[in-house]
Amino acid sequence: MARPLPYMERCRERYGDVFTMRIAQEGTWVFLADPDAVREVFTGDPAVFHAGEANRILRPWLGANSVLLLDEAPHLAQRRLLLPPFHGERMQRYGELMTEIAQRNVESWPVEEPLRLWPQMQAVTLDIIVRTIFGLEEGERMDRLRARLRDGAEMTTAWPTMAAMALLGPDRVGASRAFRTRIEPIDEVVFAEIRRRRGATDLAERDDILSMLLQARHDDGSPMSDQELRDELMTLLIAGHETTATSLAWAVERLLRHPGAMARLRDGDEEYLDAVVKETLRLRPVLPVVVRKLKAPVTIGGWDLPEGATVTPCIHLIHRRADVYPEPARFRPERFLEQPAGTYTWLPFGGGVRRCLGASFAQFEMKAVLRVIAGARRLRPVNPEPEPVRRRAITLTPGRGTEVIASAG
Ligand code: HEM
């Protein structure tokens, strides 16, 4: 729990590319550090490889309709409804908003004094996701919505809540009064926004995700219910906010220690910016594994695995393979200019039918924010030593919160 990465590395050294851990409350996890084995999982039958079931710890927040928690036909049905807002060309329209939000944040940074960037990136990505989901202008309603959603997002990243979920199970915690009194104020504002938007007459012209989902239709022609909408909006918020903020904080943490790379960004090298984003997600993936629960016995990588086991494509170990990434511990964005990111060797967003819905959105957002930062401020580290990887509830974050000293332009 405390030092997952060195532990996984030692297991691989000792046992090879496929190894088993037996984890209290979780059962048997089979780690896969071999790209061919990972391909077998990502192209496998979704009726056998259940991801939703393996994520059930998040149910009290996300709700029973969440795309992240469903499997098989119900999963595909929700995923199909959610896809249109995440198509590549849509992202362009969100670009201006992303840049504007990043600029406003960067302008508020103190100059020539130590600053932790990670909380700033949290604020930026929260603003971006709330504005793109709900399409609200700044004002009192937006402030209230943002404040309550921030509270909701913080709950899922706090150790005590996640520990309670793991020990007591999501159903008991979800039904408890303590939990209900925290989630209800959030639901109240989200449902209010959904109801208000249902009455809007300009839905077809609006770009925000809620307006698009209100126009989406199930196979039988019926619209999404308020509860379905609420569950998916919470899912996008929780899945998209902290992950992107932390990846941005890592990008800056690495760039601070590689001034040559930072200089190339300042020169406006767009191809290199893309490579920086890819290399950050390779070297510092915020989620070190993805999980699938087996609903039937299968053979993977030549091993017979029983029903009920959890197979775990190990993002961290695959990303550190020296045969794919020479000198794997080095931050070297150039490697992605020399070779493209492979489907089964670059997995920060998982893969197959469960691949992250927000993958393009997140990379587009990271580029928009990094462009603003590199252009507007010169940064140096407070302490030249690299920041250690620290585990929060689920994500792996920079241990000192990406400490910087900024000076003007
Ligand atoms: C750098 C930022 C992000 C990272 C590293 C990340 C990573 C991931 C990973 C590893 C998964 C699980 C994939 C699997 O099991 O194979 C996932 C799923 C998902 N992510 Fe992301 N994500 C990021 C940003 C976002 C954003 C911005 C959104 C939405 C706005 C989003 C929405 C989702 C959703 C809806 C799923 C569930 C997909 C499904 O089960 O079908 N993510 N993400």
TrEMBL record:
GO terms for molecular function: heme binding; iron ion binding; monooxygenase activity; oxidoreductase activity, acting on paired donors, with incorporation or reduction of molecular oxygen. PROSITE patterns: CYTOCHROME_P450. Its cofactor is heme. Keywords: Heme, Iron, Metal-binding, Monooxygenase, Oxidoreductase. The keyword Transferase does not apply. Heme binds at C356. Its EC number is 1.14.-.-. InterPro entries: Cyt_P450, Cyt_P450_CS, Cyt_P450_E_grp-I, Cyt_P450_sf, Cytochrome_P450_Monoox. It holds the Pfam family p450. It is an enzyme of class 1 (oxidoreductase). Belongs to the cytochrome P450 family. This is Cytochrome P450 135B1. The lineage of its organism: Bacteria, Bacillati, Actinomycetota, Thermoleophilia, Solirubrobacterales.
